[in-house]
Design brief:
The protein is of the alpha/beta class and about 400 residues long. It has 2 domains: about 160 residues, NAD(P)-binding Rossmann-like Domain (Rossmann fold), CATH 3.40.50.720; about 170 residues, no CATH class. Helix content is about 45%, strand content about 15%. The chain binds NADP nicotinamide-adenine-dinucleotide phosphate.
């Protein structure tokens, strides 16, 4: 009989797309999973209060002191109305609060599902406490992959991805040697503009947020539309699997049924297939090394799959993929700068301050004026991140003649 995993989970980014799907899993298997602590930025405090009432975590953190105060008020109202929350929950705020959530003494597993490089410091703090890490937050692995790998060795702990492509590759690589791998392929749906000849500058926020196969947070959805997401995933894959950039390929696969493939030197190929539901890779990462009954209720129905198509990504039309690949190959602080400039450019696009086709231009110009350093400390990576954010804003302001 296999042993059932029991995980005590610290969840960063509980109100997001990955966060809520993780809560779904915890809800459906309380005998397997327990939530010790969680965080959110604080943009939806009503929803956060409901989550706290349902899961009763010991510790919660939000970004600002104002959000923490409002949340305490909401919890007090709910408590008097329903008698549900016993209010054992302590509410903290800021980066210190986020770090305390990530390193909560009762948690054995820290699942990082915040968006952006804000995930970096709590990930590092959790590694230092030898927590078992599950990282959906790709920006952290992009900015600091090498540093994180060194810390994982030093603190004798493990990190698993939650991204579907990387969980796929992780499964296909099990039991084989790096020297036996010829190529790994990360698949991409191609986003909403695959095979569309729309003028890129006419793409609106609404069009770009309309992803054909996945329902995700706004930032990653825009990254999918620009192909930056696949570029970030290439860097993430190098940091996770250490095979060399020349062995990491991206493949357009519009059906999103195959999530990753490994081609071996003898010509055999292993593929991982599954429903396009993020609860599968999240559950895999939570249960590893066991493999347990699917909690999402979703299985592939092969009778309805009529075709599996593949194509090359169009990197001329969508240059973000090339920018990411080049930044990854150059290494040092280039990936941190790429990630930070992308966060700024995507935010400006979502605020309708720049056009879709200006996203790669801002990132490329930021990268072109960067003086790199070795990305071997949190301080260096933080400096590069801050420099890139300011530079990207400056470039956007100059291009648009607007204050951004
Ligand atoms: N969604 C997917 O299917 C998917 C798949 C693979 C990888 N990923 C990666 O997983 C990460 C999360 O993606 P998502 O789609 O779940 O994002 P999302 O829906 O935008 O959720 C982000 C979460 O992080 C919190 N947050 C945002 N900014 C923050 C800040 N500055 N400080 C602290 N917390 C902050 C948000 O809180 P509020 O709700 O209060 O704003 C929310 O809980 C990203 O790195 C993404 O690339 C996502």
């Amino acid at each position: 009989m296999t042993k059932t995993a029991f995980r005590k989970i610290a969840l960063l980014g509980a109100t997001g797309s990955i966060g809520k799907q993780t809560l779904d899993l915890i809800r459906s298997a309380p005998e397997k999973y327990q939530l010790t602590s969680l965080s959110a930025a604080g943009n939806n405090l009503e929803e956060l209060a409901k989550i706290i009432n349902e899961f009763q975590p010991s510790l919660v953190s939000v970004n600002s002191v104002e959000s923490a105060q409002k949340l305490n008020e909401l919890l007090a109202i709910k408590k008097s109305q329903t008698q549900t929350n016993q209010n054992k929950t302590e509410i903290l705020h800021g980066l210190d609060g986020l770090n305390q959530v990530a390193t909560h003494s009762e948690a054995d597993t820290t699942l990082v599902a915040v968006v952006g490089s804000v995930g970096l410091e709590p990930t590092i703090e959790a590694i230092k406490k030898s927590k078992r890490l599950i990282v959906a937050n790709k920006e952290t692995l992009v900015a600091a992959g090498e540093l994180i790998n060194q810390l994982l060795i030093k603190h004798q702990t493990t990190l698993l991805p939650a991204d579907s492509e990387h969980v796929a590759i992780h499964q296909c690589l099990k039991g084989c040697k790096a020297s036996q791998v010829r190529n790994i392929y990360l698949t991409a749906s191609g986003g909403p503009f695959l095979n569309s000849n729309i003028n890129l500058e006419d793409i609106t926020v609404k069009m770009a947020l309309n992803h054909p196969t996945w329902n995700m947070g706004a930032k990653i959805t825009i990254d999918c539309a620009t192909l930056m997401n696949k570029g970030l995933e290439v860097i993430e894959a190098e940091s996770l699997f250490n095979l060399g950039y020349d062995k990491i390929q991206a493949l357009i696969h519009p059906q999103s049924i195959i999530h990753g493939l490994v081609e071996f030197i003898d010509g055999n190929v292993m593929a991982q297939l599954g429903p396009n539901d993020m609860r599968l890779p999240i559950q895999y990462a939570l249960d590893e090394p066991e493999r347990e009954a699917n909690l999402s209720g979703k299985f592939l129905d092969f009778k309805t799959i009529k075709k599996l198509e593949f194509d090359e990504p169009d990197i001329k039309r969508f240059p973000c993929f090339r920018l990411a690949y080049e930044a990854g190959q150059k290494g040092n602080t280039y990936p941190a700068v790429l990630g930070a400039a992308d966060e700024i450019a995507v935010e400006l696009f979502l605020q309708e301050k720049i056009k879709f086709n200006e996203i790669p231009k801002i990132i490329e110009e930021t990268l072109s004026v960067h003086s790199p350093s070795k990305a071997d400390s949190l301080a260096t990576i933080r400096d590069a991140d801050e420099w890139a954010r300011n530079k990207a804003k400056e470039i956007a302001s100059k291009q648009k003649q607007v204050l951004v």
